[in-house]
Amino acid sequence: MRFSVSFFWTILFLLGSGSPSHAQGKTKPNIIIIFMDDMGYGDPECYGGAPYKTPAINKLAAEGMRFTNFYAAQATCSASRAGLLTGCYPNRIGIHGALMPWASLALNPAEETIASTLKKVGYRTGMVGKWHLGAKAPFLPVHYGFDEFLGLPYSNDMWPVGYDGRPVTDTADRKSKYPPLPLLEGDRPVRYIKTLEDQGTLTSTYTERACDFIKRNKKDPFFLYLAHSMVHVPIAASPRFLGKSGTGLFGDVMMEVDWSVNEIMKTLKAQGIDRNTLVIFTSDNGPWLTFGDHAGNTAGLREGKGSSWEGGQREPCIVRWPGTVPAGTVCNNLAATIDLLPTLARLAGAPLPKNKIDGVDIASLWFAEAGADPRDELAYYYGRNNLEAVRKGSWKLVLPHRRQTYKTYMPGKNGFPGGYAEAPVPLALYDLAHDPGETQDVQKANPEVVKALMAVAGKYRSSLGDDLTKTPCAECREPGQIPGAQK
């Protein structure tokens, strides 16, 4: 007789273990999240990326599970990262947009993160890369459950340097308002990113530190959050990758990102912990399409970063855990970054945060359990608290709002942006199973579906509010406030 994973865990519980076998002592899995910046759904080769090659990411997918309906929490930097780390819709915890270096808001230190959750059950925790949830101490990673941090406090384009790579001296240029871009160790700057050449060191610097963290913590269960700055503009690669892809700078950057994944996997293998390490590869939001040849692609999904269209929020996601997650599998079920915290907590035997979260346990998908479907709906919030769409099953109801579009202007080139306009978005219904590009509004043929999804939207409005309908949020919590920062 074949026993399911859930049945096996139930037997263990009845025998008195009280938690899954993977959460017992040294069998707790090591956990690595590789979180890309502005990587589109179609950027990895195994999702259609071309003409460059990504053999390490391809191998990750061949040895694990590739998701086709996986969503970021929101289609912009800070909000997306807040959702990933807390398991909450970002509006629930008061985080929206991309926080400026001088922003008065930060992730509230009272919020529990994946790091603080896992730390309770003995995990060593490290972060490398882009934070973007608070620009100064005590609103940096080491104050949110991470034992150590090396990286940038915010996006790599928030620096006083122009698109041409030269320092900005014109005070009328908005970029002149940015402070020098620091690389932090814990709370303190260790150097500054001043040139495009400096930008080209970030991927290798992050990778070397990540591998060092793995080696130093191989005897303990660990959680590593590797949040790459690439492929966010200004894109840059180290000299050993420049010109090597034969497909332009974006291809070179993808080559180096792929090298980074390979280095992580090689290190796990060399340290003998490959099979007990869960690796998750995904991205914060879709590509910044206005940058043209310096931006990625959505594999035909509509629009990109900064919108609630599929191209803005649907992301590549690969989950690899040898012997546990079936190799070479594809999952078409709905899932999201907000689901990672509750799933990882379960696998580690850690308690969930005391405050309400929005994520659900998706381990049943990872284990390919028959009939598993833990998430069947999703709310697409944007801005401070705008409910712009809801999804249930394969149906997506887009609610009336205004949103930026990349279709009005030609995209930019060689690191310079094109333009985009704001356009009204009418009520529309899309069947994503047959129309993932959101090209055909089918609401007239499916009035009962519209009615059902309007009820779903109403449910989210009653709990999380909606600025578009002037509905206050009943369950939102306050963000952190940085003393002395600008409003």
TrEMBL record:
Specify the signal sequence span: 1-23
The organism is Niabella drilacis (strain DSM 25811 / CCM 8410 / CCUG 62505 / LMG 26954 / E90)
**Keywords recorded for this protein, A-Z:** Calcium, Hydrolase, Metal-binding, Signal
Superkingdom field: Bacteria
The answer to whether UniProt assigns keyword rRNA processing to this entry is no
How is this protein named in the record? Arylsulfatase
Q: Which PANTHER family match?
A: ARYLSULFATASE FAMILY MEMBER, ENDO-4-O-SULFATASE
InterPro entries from the xrefs? Alkaline_phosphatase_core_sf, Sulfatase, Sulfatase_CS, Sulfatase_N
Q: Does the keyword Mitochondrion feature in the UniProt annotation?
A: no
